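Fold this complex.
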Amino acid sequence: MAKLAKSPWLLHYDGSSCNGCDIEVLACTTPVYDIERFGIINTGDPFQADILLITGGINHQSEAVVKQIYSQMPDPKVVVAVGICACTGGVFKDCYNIKGGVDTVIPVDVYVPGCAARPQAIIDGVVKALEILQQKREAFLARRA
Amino acid sequence: MMPVISVIAYLALAPFAGALLDGLDRKLAARMQGRKGPPLLQPFYDLGKLFSKQMIAVNRVQILLNLSYLVFLAIAGSMLFAGADILMCTFLLSTADMFLVMAASCDSSPFSTLGAGREMIQMMAYEPLVLLMAVGFYLATGTFHVGEIIRAPACAVIAMPGFLLGFIFITAIKLRKSPFDLSTSHHAHQEMVKGITTEMSGPALGIVTVAEYYEIVLMLGIVALFFLNRHWWSWPLAVAACLLVYFLEVLWDNVSARVKWDTLLGSCWVATLLTGGLNGLILMFVR
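Structure:
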Protein backbone atom coordinates (compact mmCIF):
# COMPACT_ATOMS: atom_id res chain seq x y z
CA MET A 1 0.00 0.00 0.00
CA ALA A 2 1.15 3.53 -0.70
CA LYS A 3 1.67 6.37 1.75
CA LEU A 4 -1.81 7.78 2.01
CA ALA A 5 -3.50 4.42 2.40
CA LYS A 6 -1.21 3.64 5.32
CA SER A 7 -2.02 6.76 7.24
CA PRO A 8 -5.67 7.75 6.82
CA TRP A 9 -6.92 10.18 9.44
CA LEU A 10 -10.64 10.18 10.12
CA LEU A 11 -12.99 13.00 10.88
CA HIS A 12 -16.35 11.95 12.24
CA TYR A 13 -19.39 14.21 11.94
CA ASP A 14 -22.92 13.54 13.14
CA GLY A 15 -25.38 14.98 10.59
CA SER A 16 -28.61 14.23 12.45
CA SER A 17 -27.97 10.70 13.63
CA CYS A 18 -29.79 8.99 16.51
CA ASN A 19 -26.28 8.21 17.91
CA GLY A 20 -26.63 4.51 17.07
CA CYS A 21 -24.09 4.71 14.24
CA ASP A 22 -21.92 7.15 16.24
CA ILE A 23 -21.51 4.61 19.00
CA GLU A 24 -20.55 1.97 16.43
CA VAL A 25 -17.98 4.36 14.92
CA LEU A 26 -16.48 4.93 18.37
CA ALA A 27 -16.56 1.15 18.96
CA CYS A 28 -14.06 0.87 16.08
CA THR A 29 -11.48 2.75 18.14
CA THR A 30 -11.84 0.50 21.20
CA PRO A 31 -9.38 -2.36 21.89
CA VAL A 32 -11.81 -4.91 20.36
CA TYR A 33 -11.63 -3.46 16.83
CA ASP A 34 -8.59 -1.15 17.25
CA ILE A 35 -8.60 0.75 13.94
CA GLU A 36 -5.27 2.34 14.90
CA ARG A 37 -3.59 -0.89 13.76
CA PHE A 38 -4.27 0.32 10.19
CA GLY A 39 -2.65 3.66 11.09
CA ILE A 40 -6.09 5.26 11.33
CA ILE A 41 -6.37 8.16 13.75
CA ASN A 42 -9.71 9.60 14.78
CA THR A 43 -8.84 13.29 14.54
CA GLY A 44 -11.23 16.13 15.25
CA ASP A 45 -9.63 18.57 12.86
CA PRO A 46 -10.85 18.90 9.23
CA PHE A 47 -7.51 20.53 8.28
CA GLN A 48 -5.72 17.27 9.12
CA ALA A 49 -8.31 14.70 8.01
CA ASP A 50 -8.31 12.49 4.90
CA ILE A 51 -11.59 10.66 5.36
CA LEU A 52 -14.86 12.29 6.35
CA LEU A 53 -17.21 9.87 8.12
CA ILE A 54 -20.77 11.14 8.31
CA THR A 55 -23.61 9.51 10.21
CA GLY A 56 -27.27 10.46 9.97
CA GLY A 57 -29.28 12.23 7.26
CA ILE A 58 -28.72 15.87 6.38
CA ASN A 59 -31.17 18.46 7.60
CA HIS A 60 -31.27 22.20 6.95
CA GLN A 61 -29.23 22.95 10.06
CA SER A 62 -26.40 20.53 9.38
CA GLU A 63 -26.19 21.26 5.63
CA ALA A 64 -24.00 24.36 5.97
CA VAL A 65 -21.76 22.65 8.55
CA VAL A 66 -21.18 19.60 6.33
CA LYS A 67 -20.34 21.84 3.36
CA GLN A 68 -17.90 23.88 5.45
CA ILE A 69 -16.15 20.84 6.94
CA TYR A 70 -15.81 19.32 3.47
CA SER A 71 -14.31 22.53 2.06
CA GLN A 72 -11.82 22.75 4.95
CA MET A 73 -10.36 19.32 4.24
CA PRO A 74 -7.21 19.37 2.07
CA ASP A 75 -7.11 17.29 -1.15
CA PRO A 76 -7.08 14.34 -1.69
CA LYS A 77 -10.08 13.42 0.47
CA VAL A 78 -12.94 10.90 0.53
CA VAL A 79 -16.38 10.83 2.14
CA VAL A 80 -17.94 7.75 3.74
CA ALA A 81 -21.66 7.78 4.55
CA VAL A 82 -22.22 5.49 7.55
CA GLY A 83 -25.67 4.03 8.20
CA ILE A 84 -28.81 3.99 6.09
CA CYS A 85 -29.82 7.54 7.13
CA ALA A 86 -26.54 8.94 5.79
CA CYS A 87 -26.91 6.87 2.60
CA THR A 88 -30.48 7.78 1.65
CA GLY A 89 -32.21 9.50 4.55
CA GLY A 90 -33.49 6.15 5.84
CA VAL A 91 -36.82 6.12 7.67
CA PHE A 92 -36.64 9.90 7.94
CA LYS A 93 -36.45 10.33 4.18
CA ASP A 94 -39.91 11.86 3.76
CA CYS A 95 -39.73 14.09 6.85
CA TYR A 96 -40.25 17.78 6.07
CA ASN A 97 -36.95 18.76 7.74
CA ILE A 98 -34.68 16.14 6.13
CA LYS A 99 -32.97 16.84 2.81
CA GLY A 100 -31.96 13.20 2.36
CA GLY A 101 -28.62 11.39 2.34
CA VAL A 102 -25.21 13.03 2.54
CA ASP A 103 -24.91 12.94 -1.26
CA THR A 104 -27.56 15.66 -1.54
CA VAL A 105 -24.95 18.11 -0.19
CA ILE A 106 -21.44 16.80 -0.93
CA PRO A 107 -20.06 14.00 -3.16
CA VAL A 108 -20.00 10.64 -1.35
CA ASP A 109 -17.49 7.92 -2.27
CA VAL A 110 -18.53 4.96 -0.10
CA TYR A 111 -21.95 4.00 1.25
CA VAL A 112 -22.05 1.80 4.37
CA PRO A 113 -25.61 0.50 4.94
CA GLY A 114 -27.04 -0.75 8.22
CA CYS A 115 -29.16 0.43 11.12
CA ALA A 116 -26.96 0.78 12.98
CA ALA A 117 -23.97 -0.02 10.75
CA ARG A 118 -21.84 -2.72 12.39
CA PRO A 119 -18.20 -1.89 13.28
CA GLN A 120 -17.06 -4.60 10.84
CA ALA A 121 -19.06 -2.94 8.06
CA ILE A 122 -17.65 0.49 8.96
CA ILE A 123 -14.07 -0.81 8.89
CA ASP A 124 -14.85 -2.52 5.56
CA GLY A 125 -16.20 0.77 4.20
CA VAL A 126 -13.13 2.68 5.35
CA VAL A 127 -10.82 0.10 3.72
CA LYS A 128 -12.82 0.54 0.46
CA ALA A 129 -12.44 4.28 0.87
CA LEU A 130 -8.67 3.82 1.10
CA GLU A 131 -8.58 2.40 -2.44
CA ILE A 132 -10.52 5.39 -3.74
CA LEU A 133 -8.27 7.71 -1.72
CA GLN A 134 -5.23 6.17 -3.38
CA GLN A 135 -6.69 6.73 -6.89
CA LYS A 136 -7.53 10.32 -5.96
CA ARG A 137 -4.01 10.83 -4.63
CA GLU A 138 -2.44 9.69 -7.89
CA ALA A 139 -4.75 12.01 -9.82
CA PHE A 140 -3.90 14.85 -7.39
CA LEU A 141 -0.15 14.35 -7.74
CA ALA A 142 -0.45 14.11 -11.56
CA ARG A 143 -2.41 17.38 -11.56
CA ARG A 144 0.18 19.08 -9.35
CA ALA A 145 3.15 17.88 -11.38
CA MET B 1 36.44 17.40 14.10
CA MET B 2 34.36 15.41 16.60
CA PRO B 3 31.76 18.20 17.20
CA VAL B 4 31.26 18.62 13.43
CA ILE B 5 30.51 14.92 13.02
CA SER B 6 28.11 14.80 15.95
CA VAL B 7 26.25 17.93 14.75
CA ILE B 8 25.88 16.50 11.23
CA ALA B 9 24.77 13.18 12.73
CA TYR B 10 22.21 15.01 14.88
CA LEU B 11 20.83 17.08 12.00
CA ALA B 12 20.60 14.05 9.70
CA LEU B 13 19.54 11.31 12.09
CA ALA B 14 17.45 13.04 14.78
CA PRO B 15 14.21 13.06 12.71
CA PHE B 16 14.59 9.33 12.08
CA ALA B 17 15.42 8.57 15.71
CA GLY B 18 12.53 10.78 16.85
CA ALA B 19 10.09 9.10 14.44
CA LEU B 20 11.22 5.64 15.59
CA LEU B 21 10.77 6.67 19.24
CA ASP B 22 7.33 8.03 18.36
CA GLY B 23 6.44 4.73 16.69
CA LEU B 24 7.66 2.88 19.77
CA ASP B 25 5.60 5.24 21.93
CA ARG B 26 2.39 4.51 19.99
CA LYS B 27 3.06 0.77 20.03
CA LEU B 28 3.77 0.81 23.79
CA ALA B 29 0.72 2.95 24.51
CA ALA B 30 -1.47 0.56 22.48
CA ARG B 31 -0.13 -2.45 24.39
CA MET B 32 -0.76 -0.67 27.70
CA GLN B 33 -4.38 -0.19 26.59
CA GLY B 34 -4.74 -3.81 25.47
CA ARG B 35 -4.63 -3.01 21.74
CA LYS B 36 -2.38 -4.20 18.94
CA GLY B 37 -1.39 -0.72 17.86
CA PRO B 38 -0.02 0.69 14.59
CA PRO B 39 3.16 -0.59 12.90
CA LEU B 40 6.47 0.65 14.33
CA LEU B 41 7.11 2.69 11.18
CA GLN B 42 3.71 4.43 11.31
CA PRO B 43 5.21 7.94 11.96
CA PHE B 44 7.16 7.63 8.69
CA TYR B 45 3.95 6.79 6.78
CA ASP B 46 2.24 9.75 8.47
CA LEU B 47 5.05 12.13 7.52
CA GLY B 48 5.10 10.85 3.94
CA LYS B 49 1.39 11.46 3.68
CA LEU B 50 1.51 14.92 5.26
CA PHE B 51 4.11 16.14 2.77
CA SER B 52 2.10 14.84 -0.20
CA LYS B 53 -1.16 16.53 0.80
CA GLN B 54 -2.54 19.84 -0.37
CA MET B 55 -1.57 22.72 1.89
CA ILE B 56 -4.46 24.94 2.84
CA ALA B 57 -2.44 27.93 3.99
CA VAL B 58 -4.30 30.34 6.21
CA ASN B 59 -1.72 33.02 5.41
CA ARG B 60 1.82 33.26 4.06
CA VAL B 61 3.49 33.99 7.41
CA GLN B 62 2.47 30.76 9.08
CA ILE B 63 4.68 28.45 7.02
CA LEU B 64 7.65 30.79 7.59
CA LEU B 65 7.06 30.75 11.36
CA ASN B 66 6.72 26.95 11.29
CA LEU B 67 10.04 26.72 9.47
CA SER B 68 11.63 29.06 12.04
CA TYR B 69 10.39 26.74 14.80
CA LEU B 70 12.08 23.82 13.03
CA VAL B 71 15.33 25.71 12.33
CA PHE B 72 15.68 27.08 15.87
CA LEU B 73 15.05 23.65 17.40
CA ALA B 74 17.66 22.15 15.08
CA ILE B 75 20.14 24.89 16.12
CA ALA B 76 19.37 24.37 19.82
CA GLY B 77 19.99 20.64 19.42
CA SER B 78 23.15 21.30 17.40
CA MET B 79 24.49 23.47 20.25
CA LEU B 80 24.07 20.55 22.63
CA PHE B 81 25.55 17.98 20.27
CA ALA B 82 28.44 20.31 19.34
CA GLY B 83 29.41 20.40 23.01
CA ALA B 84 28.68 24.15 23.24
CA ASP B 85 27.06 26.17 26.01
CA ILE B 86 24.09 24.46 27.71
CA LEU B 87 22.67 27.83 28.79
CA MET B 88 22.62 29.04 25.16
CA CYS B 89 20.94 25.77 24.15
CA THR B 90 18.10 26.28 26.65
CA PHE B 91 17.60 29.89 25.51
CA LEU B 92 17.32 28.76 21.88
CA LEU B 93 14.85 26.08 22.95
CA SER B 94 12.45 28.69 24.32
CA THR B 95 13.03 30.98 21.31
CA ALA B 96 11.97 28.11 19.05
CA ASP B 97 8.82 27.63 21.09
CA MET B 98 7.95 31.32 20.72
CA PHE B 99 7.91 30.86 16.93
CA LEU B 100 5.36 28.05 17.30
CA VAL B 101 3.24 30.30 19.53
CA MET B 102 3.41 33.04 16.87
CA ALA B 103 2.58 30.56 14.09
CA ALA B 104 -0.54 29.54 16.00
CA SER B 105 -1.55 33.11 16.86
CA CYS B 106 -1.30 34.42 13.31
CA ASP B 107 -4.54 32.76 12.14
CA SER B 108 -8.09 33.50 13.11
CA SER B 109 -9.09 30.16 14.65
CA PRO B 110 -10.14 30.56 18.30
CA PHE B 111 -8.89 27.02 19.00
CA SER B 112 -5.35 27.68 17.86
CA THR B 113 -5.29 31.07 19.64
CA LEU B 114 -6.35 29.30 22.83
CA GLY B 115 -3.68 26.67 22.17
CA ALA B 116 -1.06 29.42 21.75
CA GLY B 117 -2.07 30.92 25.10
CA ARG B 118 -1.81 27.55 26.79
CA GLU B 119 1.58 26.94 25.16
CA MET B 120 2.84 30.15 26.77
CA ILE B 121 1.54 28.98 30.17
CA GLN B 122 3.40 25.71 29.59
CA MET B 123 6.57 27.69 28.84
CA MET B 124 6.13 29.57 32.12
CA ALA B 125 5.77 26.23 33.88
CA TYR B 126 8.90 24.51 32.54
CA GLU B 127 11.26 27.44 31.99
CA PRO B 128 12.37 27.95 35.66
CA LEU B 129 13.60 24.36 35.97
CA VAL B 130 15.36 24.40 32.60
CA LEU B 131 17.32 27.53 33.60
CA LEU B 132 18.03 26.19 37.11
CA MET B 133 19.25 22.96 35.56
CA ALA B 134 21.91 24.83 33.55
CA VAL B 135 23.04 26.47 36.80
CA GLY B 136 22.98 23.04 38.45
CA PHE B 137 25.36 21.67 35.82
CA TYR B 138 27.67 24.61 36.55
CA LEU B 139 27.54 23.97 40.31
CA ALA B 140 28.12 20.25 39.87
CA THR B 141 30.86 20.31 37.22
CA GLY B 142 32.18 23.88 37.28
CA THR B 143 31.31 24.60 33.65
CA PHE B 144 28.41 25.43 31.33
CA HIS B 145 30.16 23.75 28.41
CA VAL B 146 28.65 20.44 27.33
CA GLY B 147 32.02 19.33 25.93
CA GLU B 148 33.59 19.71 29.38
CA ILE B 149 30.61 18.34 31.31
CA ILE B 150 30.89 15.00 29.48
CA ARG B 151 34.61 14.83 30.35
CA ALA B 152 33.94 15.15 34.10
CA PRO B 153 35.43 12.39 36.31
CA ALA B 154 31.99 11.30 37.61
CA CYS B 155 28.36 11.34 36.41
CA ALA B 156 26.70 14.71 37.01
CA VAL B 157 23.61 12.91 38.33
CA ILE B 158 25.46 11.92 41.53
CA ALA B 159 25.65 15.59 42.49
CA MET B 160 22.29 16.61 40.99
CA PRO B 161 19.68 13.80 41.27
CA GLY B 162 17.03 16.38 42.16
CA PHE B 163 17.53 18.19 38.87
CA LEU B 164 17.10 14.94 36.95
CA LEU B 165 13.81 14.24 38.76
CA GLY B 166 12.59 17.75 38.01
CA PHE B 167 13.70 17.43 34.39
CA ILE B 168 11.75 14.17 33.97
CA PHE B 169 8.73 16.04 35.36
CA ILE B 170 8.92 18.89 32.84
CA THR B 171 9.90 16.64 29.92
CA ALA B 172 6.24 15.52 29.97
CA ILE B 173 5.34 19.08 28.96
CA LYS B 174 7.93 19.23 26.19
CA LEU B 175 6.92 15.84 24.76
CA ARG B 176 3.23 16.88 24.94
CA LYS B 177 2.33 14.04 27.27
CA SER B 178 -0.66 13.77 29.54
CA PRO B 179 -1.24 15.23 32.19
CA PHE B 180 0.43 18.29 30.66
CA ASP B 181 -0.77 18.14 27.01
CA LEU B 182 -2.78 21.34 27.33
CA SER B 183 -1.85 23.23 24.18
CA THR B 184 -2.19 20.29 21.80
CA SER B 185 -2.43 16.55 22.19
CA HIS B 186 -1.41 13.53 20.18
CA HIS B 187 -4.59 11.84 21.35
CA ALA B 188 -7.91 12.33 19.62
CA HIS B 189 -9.81 13.46 22.70
CA GLN B 190 -8.76 17.10 22.70
CA GLU B 191 -11.29 19.59 24.01
CA MET B 192 -10.19 22.35 21.62
CA VAL B 193 -9.84 20.39 18.37
CA LYS B 194 -6.04 20.19 17.89
CA GLY B 195 -5.14 23.28 19.86
CA ILE B 196 -2.00 24.95 18.62
CA THR B 197 -1.88 22.95 15.35
CA THR B 198 -5.59 23.30 14.47
CA GLU B 199 -5.05 25.42 11.35
CA MET B 200 -1.99 23.57 10.10
CA SER B 201 -2.61 21.13 7.26
CA GLY B 202 -0.41 18.82 5.19
CA PRO B 203 3.22 20.05 4.84
CA ALA B 204 2.80 22.73 7.56
CA LEU B 205 1.88 20.05 10.10
CA GLY B 206 4.67 17.85 8.71
CA ILE B 207 7.23 20.57 9.48
CA VAL B 208 5.97 20.89 13.06
CA THR B 209 6.11 17.09 13.45
CA VAL B 210 9.73 16.93 12.24
CA ALA B 211 10.58 19.77 14.65
CA GLU B 212 9.01 17.74 17.46
CA TYR B 213 11.27 14.81 16.56
CA TYR B 214 14.30 17.10 16.85
CA GLU B 215 12.94 18.18 20.22
CA ILE B 216 12.52 14.59 21.51
CA VAL B 217 16.16 13.81 20.68
CA LEU B 218 17.30 17.10 22.23
CA MET B 219 15.43 16.41 25.48
CA LEU B 220 16.82 12.88 25.67
CA GLY B 221 20.27 14.33 24.90
CA ILE B 222 19.96 16.49 28.02
CA VAL B 223 18.94 13.40 30.03
CA ALA B 224 22.08 11.67 28.70
CA LEU B 225 24.15 14.67 29.84
CA PHE B 226 23.29 13.75 33.45
CA PHE B 227 25.04 10.40 33.01
CA LEU B 228 27.96 10.98 30.65
CA ASN B 229 31.51 11.18 32.00
CA ARG B 230 35.02 10.41 30.75
CA HIS B 231 34.63 6.62 31.12
CA TRP B 232 33.37 4.50 28.22
CA TRP B 233 30.74 2.71 30.32
CA SER B 234 28.85 5.96 30.86
CA TRP B 235 27.66 5.90 27.21
CA PRO B 236 25.60 2.66 27.37
CA LEU B 237 24.43 3.81 30.82
CA ALA B 238 23.23 7.11 29.33
CA VAL B 239 21.40 5.37 26.46
CA ALA B 240 19.70 3.02 28.93
CA ALA B 241 18.73 5.99 31.12
CA CYS B 242 17.24 7.83 28.10
CA LEU B 243 15.14 4.81 27.13
CA LEU B 244 13.97 4.37 30.73
CA VAL B 245 12.98 8.05 30.99
CA TYR B 246 11.10 7.79 27.67
CA PHE B 247 9.28 4.68 28.91
CA LEU B 248 8.34 6.48 32.14
CA GLU B 249 6.91 9.38 30.11
CA VAL B 250 4.79 7.00 28.01
CA LEU B 251 3.59 5.24 31.16
CA TRP B 252 2.71 8.55 32.81
CA ASP B 253 0.91 9.62 29.62
CA ASN B 254 -1.29 6.54 29.80
CA VAL B 255 -2.17 6.55 33.50
CA SER B 256 -3.03 10.20 34.02
CA ALA B 257 -5.74 12.61 32.89
CA ARG B 258 -5.13 16.12 31.59
CA VAL B 259 -4.92 18.78 34.31
CA LYS B 260 -6.10 22.40 34.28
CA TRP B 261 -3.63 25.20 33.61
CA ASP B 262 -3.42 26.37 37.24
CA THR B 263 -2.63 22.83 38.44
CA LEU B 264 0.03 22.60 35.73
CA LEU B 265 1.67 25.87 36.77
CA GLY B 266 1.42 25.15 40.50
CA SER B 267 2.68 21.57 40.34
CA CYS B 268 5.56 22.45 38.02
CA TRP B 269 6.75 25.34 40.17
CA VAL B 270 6.44 23.30 43.38
CA ALA B 271 8.30 20.41 41.72
CA THR B 272 10.97 22.87 40.50
CA LEU B 273 11.45 24.26 44.02
CA LEU B 274 11.51 20.86 45.69
CA THR B 275 13.84 19.18 43.18
CA GLY B 276 15.98 21.80 41.45
CA GLY B 277 15.79 24.49 44.12
CA LEU B 278 16.67 22.18 47.02
CA ASN B 279 19.36 20.35 45.05
CA GLY B 280 20.84 23.68 43.94
CA LEU B 281 20.93 25.04 47.51
CA ILE B 282 22.68 21.91 48.81
CA LEU B 283 25.22 22.15 45.96
CA MET B 284 25.91 25.80 46.82
CA PHE B 285 26.55 24.97 50.50
CA VAL B 286 28.78 22.01 49.65
CA ARG B 287 30.96 24.02 47.25
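DSSP finds eleven helices and no strands in chain B.
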